[in-house]
Design goal:
- The complex is a heterodimer.
- Helices cover 41% and strands 21% of the residues of chain A.
- In chain A, the strands form two sheets. Chain A has a six-stranded mixed β-sheet, with helices on both faces.
- Chain A has helices at 41-48, 71-78, 96-101, 110-114, 120-132, 148-160, 178-195, 206-212, 235-243, 248-270; strands spanning 2-10, 16-25, 30-34, 56-61, 64-65, 81-84, 166-170, 199-202, 215-220, 223-229.
- Chain A has a single domain, classed as Rossmann fold, CATH 3.40.50.300.
- Chain A is an alpha/beta fold.
- Helices cover 79% and strands 0% of the residues of chain B.
- The N and C termini of chain B lie far apart (54 Å).
- The chains are: A alpha/beta, B mainly alpha.
């Protein structure tokens, strides 16, 4: 179970990206984090495995506090968290198999990593996952030969082979077309149920989020403004997340008023 | 400020003045440098005659002499290969220190940058002179001179390749819980491999040329017989050596171009 309590992140620039964010994730639930650009979605998910260092609050995974771990303890904790990235972040010049097996690097000595000497059970598991994500036969292709959807499936396989306690997905569909996005979301949902682990997904396609997530967390300006099941995400909740409480009509009215003002101003200046 | 909508100038008056004076200053420097050289124009006038004379004494090349220089030619090749290999070995750690994203701290970064500029700023002939004094004349001094001179060049280019890698894959390997060394060999090394091979072969190509002249200061290779034959005015042998050097350089250039094309 992942517990995030009063998490804070203030960047060196003084930008306060996360303001006392708290939530829990457990079981095998799919949690979608939605919110406008710049709301702090990426900062939040990257703070969990400390790719971004939080500046306050607490994160515990199965009761273990993550925020105060030293370097080697942090590495061990990271082995339990699989991460999936927007731009896939594969090592492009390595083969699909090497990329998938890189999920096991946390358990391997550097010398074995150098010689690509992975234990046989990792290799057989890699093949198993490869067919699970529908990538049979491409294991010796270089990652840069694959299509976007295929690359993201390699990215997912790399996270799954870690045998993580939780999956973190940072905008996994943003670089993909709608059809491939849906496939990737289906795959993530299947994995959550089959491996019985929770998945946190940053996503900006609200429809995809509602379709796949059990629960939705709405982030606006660094604060959690909605936290509830997907069917409770009504119009009012969306206004709160995306427009600071204003409804779409109000917002459109405001912007059309602004436009009128501008055209007035132009007319005045013209003579 | 109101301006004529039909007029547009890339530079305003002040910028034009500055540009004019920069150009003027450049010309002044060139003229001053030329005058400071005190060129003897008499030599320039007789140059074509002298050149024709030299060539008539060189031609035809001494074909029989070519068998006696094969050893020296091979030595040149060996110096370039060993020197480059040694340079790469020393340049790899320097490159990781001199790349802003892999260096441990500011001090190591400056140290890396210092090694890069220091080895580059001293010419190969001067390094050869130093190593001839330390290790005596011969191929060893040549290998070391080539190696040390090449550290800066190779380390600088490899460091630039390291700085240009995709940070995303490094981040992904970090996120699975890999150690920094694992990240280096699994996330960074595959990304710089093409640059590494292309830099190595390019430098080897340069080093073949450098190895032909370090013999002038006693550091082995084809430069040693070349200097001897020049001293004895044995011009037909000199032409043989020059042709041999040309052939060697052409071959090394072709090989290095082929290898660089192959890794892209």
């Amino acid at each position: 179970m992942l517990e995030v309590t009063e998490l804070e992140k203030t960047y060196d620039t003084g930008d306060r990206a996360l303001k006392s964010v708290s939530f829990e994730v457990s079981g095998n639930e799919i949690v979608a984090i939605i919110g406008p650009s710049g709301a702090g979605k990426s900062t939040l998910i990257r703070s969990i495995n400390r790719l971004t260092e939080p500046t306050g609050g607490s994160i515990t995974l199965d009761g273990k506090e993550l925020t105060d771990l030293g370097q080697s303890e942090l590495r061990n904790a990271r082995r339990d968290m699989g991460m999936i990235f927007q731009e896939f972040n594969l090592v492009e010049r390595l083969t699909v198999m090497e990329n998938i097996l890189s999920g096991r690097l946390g358990y391997l000595s550097t010398w074995d990593a150098f010689r690509r000497n992975f234990p046989p059970e990792d290799i057989s598991r890699a093949r198993e996952i490869l067919s699970r994500v529908n990538l049979d036969g491409v294991e010796n292709n270089r990652a840069d030969e694959l299509s976007g959807g295929q690359r993201q499936r390699v990215g997912i396989a790399r996270a799954v082979i870690q045998r993580p306690k939780i999956l973190l997905a940072d905008e996994p569909t943003s670089a993909l077309d709608p059809e491939t996005s849906r496939e990737v979301m289906n795959l993530l949902t299947d994995i959550a149920h089959e491996d019985d682990i929770p998945v946190i997904i940053n996503i900006h396609e609200v429809d995809l989020a509602i379709e796949h997530a059990d629960r939705i967390i709405g982030l606006s300006n660094g604060e959690v403004v909605f936290n509830g099941s997907a069917d409770k995400l009504d119009e009012e909740a969306r206004d709160e997340i995306y427009r600071g409480g204003e409804s779409l009509e109000q917002k459109q009215m405001a912007s059309s008023e602004a436009e009128t003002n501008i055209s007035d101003a132009v007319v005045e200046r013209g003579d | 400020m109101s301006s004529n909508p039909e007029s547009w100038e890339r530079f305003d008056r002040r910028e034009r003045l500055i540009r004019f004076f920069m150009l003027f200053a450049g010309l002044v420097i060139i003229v001053a440098a030329w005058r400071a050289m005190e060129v003897n124009y008499g030599y320039a006038i007789t140059a074509p005659v002298e050149l024709a004379d030299l060539f008539s004494r060189m031609y035809p090349p001494d074909v029989g002499y070519s068998t006696t220089i094969t050893g020296a030619l091979l030595e040149t090749l060996n110096i370039s290969i060993l020197g480059t290999a040694l340079a790469i070995l020393m340049a790899i750690p320097v490159a990781f220190l001199g790349a802003s994203n892999t260096t441990p701290n500011k001090a190591t970064y400056l140290f890396g940058k210092f090694i890069i500029s220091f080895t580059r700023s001293v010419n190969v002939i001067i390094w050869a002179l130093i190593f001839v004094v330390v290790f005596g004349p011969g191929a060893l001094a040549g290998v070391l001179a080539i190696a040390v001179r090449s550290i800066g060049f190779t380390a600088k280019l490899i460091a630039e390749a390291i700085e240009e890698i995709d940070k995303g894959s490094v981040e992904a390997v970090t996120a699975v819980g890999a150690s920094q060394l694992d990240v280096l060999i699994y996330g960074i090394v595959p990304q710089i491999k093409p640059a590494f091979i292309s830099v190595t072969t390019l430098r080897w190509d340069i080093n073949v040329r450098a190895s032909t002249i370090i013999g002038f200061v006693g550091a082995g290779g084809i430069g040693v017989p070349l200097q001897t034959e020049i001293n004895y005015f044995n011009w037909e042998a000199v032409l043989t050596i020059l042709i041999a050097i040309l052939g060697l350089v052409l071959v090394s250039e072709a090989v290095s171009a082929y290898l660089r094309k192959k890794v892209m």
